[in-house]
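QUALITY CONTROL LOG
STEP: pairwise intake check
CHECKER ROLE: data steward
CRITERIA: each record must contain a sequence immediately followed by its structure tokens, with no blank fields

ENTRY 1 OF 2
RESULT FIELD BELOW
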Amino acid sequence: MKGPLSLRRAALAGVIYAVVMCIWRYVSSDDTLDELSVKFAVYFVFFTTGFWILYNLFATWKSRGED
């Protein structure tokens, strides 16, 4: 594993995830744009922080096993 994930790359993954989820919600339900903007913010924040923390925890755990 290369090393810790930067917050910038995690945010990029979060934006991609939030866009895909909001498009899916827009197509599959009758959510308004106001609801989608709130959902976008929630998806972005939770996915970005969760992905960043979990990836870095796994990278730390993996690097300790290689010593």
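ENTRY 2 OF 2
RESULT FIELD BELOW
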Amino acid sequence: MVVVELLEAAVGFLFDQFGIGGVSVGAVALLLAGLWYSRELSSLLIGGARWLRIGSVVAGVLAIGAVAGIATGALSLDSGVVAQLLELLGSLAGGL
């Protein structure tokens, strides 16, 4: 109820200061600004989704390449960078 009373007081003050016309114009301006910023935010989200899609394709290609390399013996799990990465992942997973 306190929130309702505060809103009633704020709206009453605005009507006393600016009248119905001023409050109406302000409400329309606020609505248009909100719609404008919503549009800008959606553009950012769409751009982020595109980069995530590209990143998932790259990660998929790298994963397929790693599996194919391990299956053909081109990558060894016993030594080298792959072994170090697996050891690091194992130590991280063990710490959780």
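INTAKE CHECK: passed for both entries
DESCRIPTIVE NOTE, ENTRY 2: The chain has two helices and no strands.
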